[in-house]
Structures are given as C-alpha cells and as structure tokens.
Amino acid sequence: MNGARKIFSAFLVLTFLAALTSVGNPTVAAQGLARDFSISTDCTHIVIGKGKEVELDVRIANLGERDEDIILSISGPEDWEPRFEKSWAYEVQAIHLGCEEDRNSLSLRFKAKPPEEATAGDYEFTLRGTTADGQLSRSLKIVITLKAKEVAAAPTAEKVQLTTKYPSMKQPAGENFEFEIELKNGVNEARVFDLAAEIPYGWAAYCTPRWEKAKKISAIKVNANATERLSFVLIPPPDVPEGEYKVTFGARSGEDVATIELKAVVTGTYKLKLGTEAEVLGQGETRNIKAFAGREKSFTLFLWNEGSAPISDVDFFSSKPKDWEVSFKPEKLSSLPPLTEEMKPTKVNVIIKPKAKAIPGDYLVTLTASGKEDRESMELRVTVGAPMTWGWIGVAIILVVIGSLLGLFAKLGRR
C-alpha cells in the first residue's frame, strides 16, 4: 500500500511539474472558460496529545466556469495513515465539482493518527488537489505538533448531544421507520452540524427538520446552547426479511461528534383474502347462491394469505338470518402460511341451511375468517326457493281441482 502511494504521489508531482512548464498563470482558460479551484481549512497548525487522532474539515471549491474532476493526494509521514474521508465511512481519492453555485464545493475530512512510537515534535502534511488533465494543482500545508502527553479537552458529550424518546421501532415490511431525534448544541456559539448515518445494505435514509418534512437535509445550523428537532426516515427495501436492523445516526461539527444507536424491527405482513370458486378457479359458484328452505347447501370457500408471515389461529363464524344454520369444515385453522409458500389457496366447506319455513326470496349471509393478525369477511346473497316436493304437491292439487271441475261439468251436462 505504501509503495503504491509513493508511485501515485510521484506521478502527480511529475504531472504537476509538466503543467508548470506550460502554464504560468494560476488561472487557466480552456475553450474560453476560466478555471480555478481552492483547498482551505480553518486550522493549519494544531496541537494534539499522544494517541489522539487528527480530524480537520477541509473545503475544496471550484472557482472556475467549468466542471472539474480533482485527484487528491497527501504527502507527509505515511505511518500516520493520512487520508481524506467523507461521511465517516470511506476514503476519498478523487472528487467531481460542478460550476453551479449549489454543487461547486465539497467538505472532506482530513484524518491522521500518530503511531504509538511517534516522538514529540512538529509533523508537516501537504494536502494537494490536481485536475484530471494536470492543468491545475493546488496545495495546503498543515502542521501538527505532537505533545508527549495527552492534551486535555472538554468532553464531547457537553458540546453536542443526540437523544430520542423511541430508539426502537417496529413496522411491517413495506413501511418506513421515522425516528424523532433532538440535536443539542452545548457551546456558546452557533454551529453547523453535518448529519450522517450508517444503515443496512440496500436501505435508504434521509433527514428533515421536524416541522419541514418536505426539506431533505444533510446539515443543520443550531444556535448557541439550543436544540433542534429532526426527523430521521429509514426506508427498507421492498423484499426486506423479518428481523432487527441496527442503525447509527450521527452529528458532527469540527471534532465534536455525537452518535445514537437506533433499532428498526421489521415484522411480517399479514393479508387475509377470501374468494369463491368462480373468483379463484374461473368457474363454479359465485357470491350469489341458491338454496331451499330446510335443506343444506354446500358452498366452497377459498382463503389465502397474501402477506409475508403466517396468520395464526384462524376461526370462522357467520352472520345469518334468524333460525338459519351455518357450519364450517374445518372449524379452525391453526396457521395460514403465505401464498408464496403454499402456492395454492386453502379450501373450507361451508354448509348453509335455511330454516324450514323460510319464505322464498333473497337473504344475506356474511362469512368471516379471523386470525390473530388479520381478518376478512365475505357477503353471500342466498336466494331461497320452495322445495320441489311442494311443487309436485301443488301440481297434484291443481290436477285434482281440474278433475273435479270436469266431473262436475259432465254431470251437469247429462241433466
């Protein structure tokens, strides 16, 4: 790694010297557009104690009229492991800066840590940026004075604090998590805090001011000894498995850092569905069925779970006209797994028996399946007709009446 850095640094130096032979003015023009950029920091000479890591905010700004790709390098004691970082998570070796006002600058963090065997004294680092074409190069010198003993500093906890009432939240898959966080600035001056988070792979997150949900921010200004309320929103991927996911949210201003541990608990989803033969198979009975007074009518009810987790203890019950009978076989399901696991709906046989003296007509019967996690209902329109035996009896009565009339007419005719 050290050899590669030396070769890379040597290449940049040669590129820089070559650029100097053809460029005399620090601001060059390409295709009629002025070019320039700067590297700056608030502190160019700092003092640290033994074992203390150096962290400085460095700002790189594009001052020209065209976009620039800038390659970064650091020269100095390599055993200090100097580097540029962004959002605490990764090392940065090159950046792209636009020429528009809202994207022409970037803040990076210069970090270095003295080795345990380092002796007290002054250590010099040169931070350098060079455009990708080698035409422009800018540098910044930083001196770090290492003391033999630790240098006392005020506790960070007194300077910045992050708190929340609800560090753990539970949501079903597909739902976002929204944490309400308070950021306290504990010093006697206003400061700007960078906001960042370490989140699980595949997740997304953003932060907004508490009362301005439409604004997504990566930094916020907090007045002296004041507190700002933030909303931190976590967005899990659509296919996230059930489980607990840890998230670290942090705020930083200069060397003052505060973090807070959050936990997002993803539960399964539960979606109970009911259907008829016609709805599931494309043929068979619909939600309009026919029955006869006093006779049992068999009806097949289909149910399935469109969620991602099993629905437990599914019971069946009905809402029916007075003196009717409705029964289910089976009467209960101990568990209804997701349809993605079963690959087919579950059948339940429903027996509906209108009362013996039911008047022919339409009646409403409601079937309900209820589990611990979800429930669903279905309405059936039951058309009750008179039994066929009564029809034949009616026909017989009519025939008897007709026969009697014919006999009467014949008798009267002979007279």
Describe the structure in your own words.
By secondary structure, this protein is mainly β. It folds into 3 domains: 2-146, Immunoglobulins (Immunoglobulin-like, Sandwich); 156-267, Sandwich (Immunoglobulin-like); 272-389, Immunoglobulin-like (Sandwich), CATH 2.60.40. 15% of the residues lie in helices and 49% in strands. The protein contains 5 helices and 30 strands. It has helices spanning 2-22, 156-159, 277-281, 339-342, 388-414; strands at residues 28-30, 33-35, 37-41, 45-48, 54-62, 68-75, 83-86, 90-91, 94-97, 105-112, 121-131, 137-146, 160-163, 168-172, 177-185, 191-198, 204-209, 219-222, 227-235, 243-253, 256-267, 272-275, 288-292, 297-305, 311-319, 325-329, 332-336, 346-353, 361-370, 375-385. It has a 5-stranded antiparallel β-sheet with strand order 3-5-10-7-8, with no helix packed on it. β11 (121-131) and β12 form a beta hairpin.
Structural domain tally = 3
Cα shape:
rod-shaped
CATH topology assignment of the largest domain: Immunoglobulin-like
Number of strands: 30
Ends: how far apart? 134 Å
Gyration radius, to the nearest Å? 40 Å
Adjacency order of strands in the biggest sheet:
3-5-10-7-8
